[in-house]
Structures are given as structure tokens and as C-alpha cells.
């Protein structure tokens, strides 16, 4: 029997706003979910616009007021407005779409928190994790997941929220929102290449662990090489995220579910296959009594995106996860990142207390006999 019900809010709007960033990302994902029968097994949750008060949970009044004016701007003014931010494009209808994207995430949180569904995925555009308190950035207008986390805390008295950002970019907007907040544990892995990859922030490195009371509650795993595979992803999950997550003991898990971390994506250039997301999802479903809300972020290779979305939804529905094909041990670069993160966090988490001391043995165990002694 399928205990897990997946809710599935989506933007059906054929709004021209959504043309600025390929709408096929949603339509093809949705069509495939329908064709494979997965959509039928999901509870569809109606979408609504996020209210001003909800948007203000993660954004400043000045910023919201500025975005509100965009539907009435001339094309010229819009371009001028856009130029003050990084890598984001404003269309007259993006304000409406962005309110729907945030609202969809909130509808999903409501459905999960009230027990209407066990877990779910919100397929939304524009994405959210790069947008900051007072700035749009990287295709993102409102920070859907950050708003959802604040909303869950405020409306349902949730005490601890885990945000897992498996998108291949650093969700710096989420980090900035919660860096001094110990009630939200933010985990992000991201293509970094020693700061050579966008958004080129020193703040994305492993030693940025959070501030003040929030120290230890921000976990950055920088990928310093492209081509990371399933084994690299799974080892970081198993040796960093999961031990800390169990110790943190969240009441709710939110996922910044970007799939540009999958093979074939022009942004990520990684080699993890879509079925790895079945495993990542499955591993997170044991936390927070299964209360998990995944919200779409990036993912620009349509084939890879669609397969990854299906793997995620299928797993949320309770289907058995596929056997991982030829799982290799992590590469040296991934091991280095992993060890750096564990060391940076050992003061904050008792599960990592011995991280530094065991690094040598740990890497030897992973690399196998030929690499022993490195
Ligand atoms: Zn991304």
C-alpha cells in the first residue's frame, strides 16, 4: 500500500512571463509525470500567490515594493532595474509568477504540516535560492524555500528545519537568511572550483559555518572539480549531512531541489545519474517523521531534469529505490572537501568530534590499498 502521497502544485499558467527562462522545464516535467502515471498517484494541491506578509518573512519591504513596480515598467525601465542585480531577468509578469512560486511552496508546507500529504514536490519557476533579502540574483526573485522555512516556524511552531540544497549552485540567499539562526540548518553542496565558479563567493567555502548562535548550522560542501559521480554525492550525504542531520533532529525537511547537479547539465558539468536523486530523497525521508517538501530550483538539461524529477517523485511515493549502478568510491578532490567540512564542523557536532583525528584512516579506508599512505 502506498502510504506516501505526493502533492504536486504546479504552475499551469501559459503566461508569457515564464518564457524568460525555459517553460519546458516545467511542462516537460509535468507531461512526463502524467505519462508515467506518477501524477495520478499524487495529490494535486492548488497554487496560490504568497502574500506580502509572507514574502516579507525573507525579504525587505524596500525590495518587495521595488519588485511590485516591475509589471508597470516600460521595457527600458525593466532593463535598467535588472542591471542592479546579478544574472536575473525581469519580465512584466515575473512578479506574479514569483508570488505563485513562493505560494506553491507554502501550500506544500501547509499540506505536509497538516498531514494532508506525507511529503511532496513543488514544481515552480522562477527558482528561489539565490535571491537575497534585498536583491534578486541568479534567475531568482523571491527565496521560495527560505520563505517556506520561516513560514513553517511561524505558523506551525516548527522548532528545527533542515534545508538540503542539492542544486549545483550555492544558495547564498538561503545561507544569508539563516546564518545566525540555529533553528535552521542549511546544507549546500556546490560547484566551487576554488571560487572560480559562479557566484564566486568566498562565503561559499567549507569554513563558512554560520555566525554567532548560528555557528555550526551552515554547512557548505564545495566541489572543487567537475565530473563528480554518484559515489561522491552519496559519500558526502553519508559522512557529513546525515550524521549531522540526525543529531540536529529536524521537525521538517525542505529541499532546494535543483537538478543541475545531474549528468548532462551545462551549468553543473557533473556526472551523477538521475537515479542518485532517488537515493538522496530516500535517505532524507527517514528524518522529521518523513515530513519532506522538495521545491524545484535549477536544472537545465531537460532529459536529465525530467528523469531526476521522476526519480524524486517516485521515491516520495514510496517506490523502492533502484540499485545504484557500479558505485565507485569518492575521488580525491571530493574526499578533500569532505574532510575539510568535517573538520570545520567538528567543534559543533558530536558526531564529527573526532573528524580531524581520523582523517588519515578515513581517507585510507576510502581510497583502498593502492592509495594508502597518501
Ligand atoms: Zn542551480
TrEMBL record:
Question: Which Gene3D superfamilies does the record match to this protein?
Answer: Histone deacetylase domain
Question: Molecular function (GO) terms listed?
Answer: deacetylase activity; hydrolase activity
Q: What broad class describes the main subcellular location of this protein?
A: nucleus
Q: Where in the cell is it found?
A: Nucleus
Q: Which Pfam families does the UniProt entry name for this protein?
A: Hist_deacetyl
Query: Among the record's GO biological process terms, what is one?
Result: epigenetic regulation of gene expression
Give the source's domain of life in one word. Answer: Eukaryota
Q: Which residues form the Histone deacetylase domain?
A: 21-315
Give the record's GO CC terms: nucleus
Task: List the keywords (alphabetical).
Answer: Hydrolase, Nucleus
Please report which protein family the annotation says this sequence is part of.
Answer: Belongs to the histone deacetylase family. HD type 2 subfamily.
UniProt protein name: Histone deacetylase domain-containing protein
Query: From which source organism is this entry?
Result: Astatotilapia calliptera (Eastern happy)
Amino acid at each position: 500500500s502506498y502510504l506516501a502521497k505526493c502533492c504536486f502544485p504546479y504552475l499551469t499558467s501559459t503566461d508569457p512571463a515564464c518564457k524568460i527562462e525555459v517553460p519546458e522545464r516545467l511542462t516537460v516535467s509535468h507531461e512526463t509525470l502524467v505519462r508515467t502515471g506518477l501524477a495520478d498517484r499524487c495529490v494535486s494541491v492548488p497554487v496560490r500567490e504568497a502574500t506580502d506578509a509572507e514574502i516579507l518573512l525573507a525579504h525587505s519591504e524596500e525590495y518587495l515594493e521595488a519588485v511590485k513596480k516591475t509589471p508597470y515598467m516600460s521595457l527600458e525601465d525593466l532593463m535598467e532595474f535588472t542591471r542592479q542585480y546579478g544574472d536575473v531577468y525581469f519580465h512584466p509578469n515575473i512578479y506574479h509568477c514569483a508570488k505563485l512560486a513562493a505560494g506553491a511552496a507554502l501550500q506544500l508546507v501547509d499540506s505536509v504540516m497538516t498531514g494532508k500529504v506525507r511529503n511532496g514536490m513543488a514544481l515552480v519557476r522562477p527558482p528561489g535560492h539565490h535571491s537575497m533579502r534585498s536583491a534578486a540574483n541568479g534567475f531568482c526573485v523571491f527565496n521560495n524555500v527560505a520563505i517556506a522555512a520561516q513560514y513553517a516556524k511561524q505558523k506551525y511552531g516548527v522548532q528545527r528545519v533542515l534545508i538540503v540544497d542539492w542544486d549545483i549552485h550555492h544558495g547564498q540567499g538561503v545561507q544569508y537568511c539563516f546564518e545566525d539562526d540555529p533553528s535552521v540548518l542549511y546544507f549546500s553542496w556546490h560547484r566551487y572550483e576554488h571560487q572560480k565558479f559562479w557566484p564566486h563567493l568566498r562565503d561559499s567555502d567549507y569554513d563558512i559555518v554560520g555566525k554567532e548562535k548560528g555557528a555550526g548550522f551552515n554547512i557548505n560542501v564545495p566541489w572543487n572539480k567537475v565530473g563528480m559521480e554518484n559515489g561522491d554525492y552519496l559519500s558526502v550525504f553519508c559522512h557529513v549531512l546525515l550524521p549531522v542531520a540526525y543529531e540536529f533532529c529536524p521537525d521538517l525537511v525542505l529541499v532546494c531541489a535543483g537538478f543541475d547537479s545531474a549528468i548532462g547539465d551545462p551549468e553543473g558539468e557533473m556526472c551523477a545519474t538521475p537515479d542518485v536523486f532517488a537515493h538522496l530523497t530516500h535517505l532524507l525521508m527517514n528524518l522529521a517523521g518523513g515530513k519532506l517538501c522538495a521545491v524545484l530550483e535549477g536544472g537545465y538539461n531537460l532529459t536529465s531534469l525530467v528523469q531526476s524529477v521522476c526519480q524524486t517523485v517516485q521515491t516520495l511515493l514510496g517506490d523502492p529505490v533502484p540499485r545504484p549502478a557500479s558505485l565507485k568510491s569518492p575521488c580525491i578532490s571530493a574526499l578533500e572537501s569532505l574532510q575539510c567540512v568535517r573538520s570545520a564542523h567538528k567543534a559543533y557536532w558530536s558526531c564529527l568530534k573526532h573528524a580531524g583525528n581520523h582523517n588519515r584512516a578515513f581517507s585510507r579506508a576510502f581510497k583502498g590499498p593502492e592509495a594508502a599512505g597518501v
